[in-house]
Amino acid sequence: MTGRHVGNVPLVRRPDMTTVTVDDSLFVYDECEQRFFVLNTSAAAVYELVDGHCGPLDIAEALVVVHPDQAESVRTDVYDTLAGLLELGVIAEWDGP
């Protein structure tokens, strides 16, 4: 596997983030840190699949179904995007109920 490894625990969006779609971008506002992030169409598709139930492998495979002819690059992009979102604190690993 290429791309950064992010494990396969379920991922969750932070509840204190506000999102709004503008044209082809998704703006994510971090209310606690008072900063925002702009996600392009691909990153937004990954972000939207973060639901607290799916891990990186599940998210990657859901998008591979949409783009089967680009499976390896889709997986790499998903893993890199999730690692970046984790690093920025936009999403987190789910730690249970």
Give the N-to-C terminal Cα separation.
31 Å
SSE pattern = EEEEHHHE
Sheet of most strands: 3 strands, antiparallel
The strand line-up of the biggest sheet is: 2-3-4
- Unreliable stretches (pLDDT < 50, length at least 5) are none
Approximately what portion of the residues adopt beta-strand conformation?
Answer: 15-25%
The geometry reads as: globular
Q: Please count the helical segments.
A: 3
Structural class comes to alpha+beta
What is the alpha-carbon Rg in Å? Answer: 13 Å
Arithmetic mean of pLDDT: 91
The residue fraction in helices comes out at 25-40%
Structure summary, number of beta strands: 5
Summary of the model, kept short:
This protein is an alpha+beta fold and 97 residues long. 38% of the residues lie in helices and 24% in strands. Helix 2 crosses helix 3.
Description of the molecule:
With 97 residues, the protein is α+β, with helices and mostly antiparallel strands. The protein has a domain at 41-92. 38% of the residues lie in helices and 24% in strands. It has helices at residues 41-48, 56-66, 71-88; strands spanning 11-13, 17-22, 25-30, 35-39, 91-93. The strands form 2 sheets. It has a 3-stranded antiparallel β-sheet. A hairpin with a 4-residue loop joins strand 3 and strand 4. It is globular, with a radius of gyration of 13 Å.
